[in-house]
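Need tokens for this chain, all 327 residues.
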Amino acid sequence: MSRRAVAGAVLALALGACAPSLAGLPGSPVAADGGVAIKAEPVALNPQDPAQDRIGAFHYAGGLVLTSVETTRLHGLSDLDISTDGRLTAITDEGDLLTARIVLGGAGRLVGVTKAVIAALPGPDGKPLPGKLEADAEGLALLPSGGKLVSFEQRHRIWLYPANGAPPLEAPAPTAGLEPNGGLEALALDPARGPLAYVAGGEESGQTWTCEIGGACAASLLIPKPAEFGLVAMTRLPDGNTAYLLRAWDAIRGSRISLTIMGPTGLEVDRMDLTRPLTVDNFEGLAAVPTKGGQRFYLISDDNFQSVQRTLLLAFDWRPAKGNPRP
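Here are the structure tokens for all 327 residues:
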């Protein structure tokens, strides 16, 4: 979640909309570890021009609006991982874990989400995390061992959830200088440095840190970004590049999203900008799946538990162009 959560509520009221609500959903949430049916409605990349199928070298591979009438907890999705066999893992900023499978249609186009289960992230005592201050999960990275790293803001920390289901353990995390609602939004494995290495990034500052389980964190690259943008997600790519997601919002222009691919030396390789009239919302999560000659990127949006926003899952296929990275 971000400054937009408050601003969006104010804007909804100013426009005469109902107070942010989840009308039509049940009054009580689904039980922990409960399977839920997810409705996935397709969306065009550009509702004003449904024939548009690309943004530069990024080819649109399908997009969905995700809803469920069986739970009030399919909201606030803040990061995700998608494996090569289609397993989806996501977290919410209310302390829930979503697991599911994506469904691909012809030509590998994203068409649905199935076999969804929602469960509460437990604390060290094995109980669900109590309240927003403790449960504001923002970053997710899946370890080769099957464990999960989850970063939290409000109370800044990174926890390691073991693959065997044991209670989470504290993992090295930078905490100095982080804003209460602008903390470690970005979290990704760093396999080039080892199986226990990861990178974390601060939303407001764009500062990143390289960390290692059993070790410590050290300041690393400062992500270049305009002041109004926040660093909300990142992932290392097999070719040595890094993809990162920037987000901005204001009442006039709405959400603005930039997906940037940066080379090992810090030069920009490519960039995709999502702004109106394209399908855009409060995207906070980023996953990359290798494809033949490139990457498939998945973006997921945090609807801030507001009826005026949507939970979107979009897919884009990208192949690097020949030539040198942009300066």
